[in-house]
Amino acid sequence: MKTENQKAWFLVLPVIALVAFNALVPLMTVVNYSVQETFGNNIFLWSGVRWFEEILASERFHAALTRQLIFTATILAIEIPLGVAIALAMPRKGPWVPVCLVLMALPLLIPWNVVGSMWNIFALPDIGLLGKGINALGIDYNYTQQPVAAWFTVILMDVWHWTSLVVLLAYAGLISIPDAYYQAARIDGARPWAVFRHIQLPKMKKVLTIAVLLRFMDSFMIYTEPSVLTGGGPGNSTTFLSIDLVKIALGQFDLGPAAAMSLIYFLITLLVSWVFYTLMTKDEAE
Amino acid sequence: MIRAAFATALTVAPSWALAQTSGWGSVGQPKEESFSWTQPLFGGFWMAWTPATLAFFAFIFAAIATMGLLEWRAPGAAPRHGVLGLDTTRGDRLFITLLGSAFIFLGWLALIGTPLWGPLALAVVWGAFVFWKV
Fold first, then answer.
1. DSSP secondary structure, A71-139, as one string
2. pTM of the entire structure?
3. Considering its fold, how many domains does chain A have in total?
């Protein structure tokens, strides 16, 4: 007797239709634009792979990509360990649990452009609490003029905004560990580091994979917050890939080069995410 | 004399006709349309299709559909352990082929440039390798 069928696939049809419209159609359009030249008015002229050659050879693209990679690597190196540390320090039971969770969730609820505006004012050297405070310590800090200060502010803002996500995911992984594991560790006389290394970290691996992937993709595509905070400046020092892309596409209306650049951008994101996901899930499959 | 004029007229007349068709005579005449891979398709539509890009996506969707058909006709695409140490199904191998091919083309463009027959051959070899060994 046959008890299984494939009818459940029909249930995912709405999702497929949605993805087709919000991802596939725009992606196909970008591919079409990337091999053509337009001056607007829906008139397109074939240009072959010229835009790809130009973008791949362009100093400006290399610089934006380098900045993007440094930014993403930096925030991952800060947010993941910090998030895990905070999750470990949070209470597992008692009245403080909901308080901590709500406090942690707060930054995630704030719209990105508001985060940018908040930090813009917060870090201003003449009226902002952070900016004035740092200057009062005798450190010359002005993120509107100094590239290092601008980088510091952008990274601090991202850490403030997104570490909570890592915390919540890591916390979800932590509370799912049954008490029996801890009891066994106590009987063996395991030190806290051993408990972390052999019980907590392996049990958090799945959620941390998701956390790293989400943070990688989000930070690699970051636009709104640095755009509002620094506008890509001073100079080009915080012009990340997406900010540069918007400058090319909307500022200069070079849709062809912008499309070619977004495809290269998309392929890099896809490759890194795939490699990372494959590496992290490889052991489970074996 | 008359004969010479007649001969001249016969020689020159075709060139007048030629001038009529290729010079100013063709102004305002509808141009003969022939198929081109790079001409806009569905004129004025915002997605800016051309036959070349349409063929590109048709190829990708056909490849995905082929994977589906294969799975339907010959189920048993349980993941296999390949040379890269990965467990891959047919769909995974198609994904690796396409993603790898994209980077083969980009790398060739960045280091060598056009024409792109070289990376096309490389991509085909890469695809064959992935489906055979990975």
1. HHHHHHHHHHHHHHHHHHHS-SSSTHHHHHHHHHHHHHHS-HHHHHHHHHHHT-TTT-HHHHHHHHTT-
2. 0.79
3. 1
ipTM: 0.77
Type of residue at B97: T
* Cross-chain CB nearest to B106 (options A31, A35, A56): A56
CATH code, A180: 1.10.3720.10
What span, in angstroms and rounded, lies between the C-alpha atoms of A241 and A268? 12
- Alpha-carbon distance values, B38 to A54, A64, A185, B106 (Å): 20, 31, 68, 21
Bridge-based pairing state of the strands A44-46 and B80-81: unpaired
Closest-CA distance of chain A to residue B86, Å:
7
In a domain, B116, yes or no: yes
* Crossing angle of helices A129-136 and A112-122, rounded to 10°: 30
- pLDDT tens digits for range A261-270: 999 999 998 9
Phi, then psi, of B29 in degrees rounded to 5: -80, 145
Give tens-digit pLDDT for B69-109.
Answer: 888 888 766 778 888 778 888 888 999 999 999 999 999 99
Domain that holds residue B125: 89-134
Shortest Cα distance, chain B CAs vs residue A45, angstroms? 8
Cβ-Cβ contacts under 8 Å, B48 against chain A = 29, 32-33, 36, 38, 42, 44
Q: Which residues of B touch A285 (CB under 8 A)?
A: 79, 87
Q: Does residue A41 form part of some domain?
A: no
From B114, B5, B75, B128, select the one nearest A53 (Cα to Cα): B114
Residues in chain A with CB shorter than 8 Å from the CB of B46 are: 29, 42
Answer yes or no: is B117 within a domain.
Answer: yes
Give B113's contacts in chain A (Cβ within 8 Å): 53
**Is the Cβ–Cβ distance between A31 and A234 less than 8 Å?**
no
Average confidence (pLDDT) over A217-229: 90
AA identity, residue B132: W
Say if B77 falls within a structural domain. Answer: no
Question: Minimal Cα distance from B81: which residue of A?
Answer: A286
| Residue B39 confidence (pLDDT) | 82
